[in-house]
Amino acid sequence: MDGIEADYAGRLRVLRLDVQDVAGKELADEYGVLGTPTFIFLDPQGSELWRSVGSINADKVAESLP
């Protein structure tokens, strides 16, 4: 994830949640996160475009960016 974050700086915002933290758990519950790591790709309006559990594909990230 660090590499994807660096490659797409300015075009992609990465938020990391600690699901052991109260706020992180609340957001994980809100988004239906059942396992970690879970990556959720949202559009600028906050609608979910896709999610990946366990790993993330850098090519899919690139294809999803405007």
Structural overview:
The chain is α+β, with helices and mostly antiparallel strands and 66 residues long. Helix content is 33%, strand content 17%. It has a two-stranded antiparallel ribbon with strand order 1-2. The longest helix is centred in the middle third of the chain and has 9 residues. The radius of gyration is 12 Å and the shape is globular. The two termini are 19 Å apart. 2% of the residues are buried.
Spans of at least 5 consecutive residues with low confidence: none
The biggest beta sheet is recorded as:
2 strands, antiparallel
Kindly provide the radius of gyration, computed on alpha-carbon positions and rounded to a whole number of angstroms: 12 Å
Structural class: alpha+beta
Q: What portion of residues is helical?
A: 25-40%
The proportion of residues in beta strands is: 15-25%
SSE pattern: HHEEH
Cα separation of the termini? 19 Å
**Count of helices?**
3
Give average pLDDT, whole number.
Answer: 91
Shape: globular
Main sheet strand line-up: 1-2
Number of strands: 2
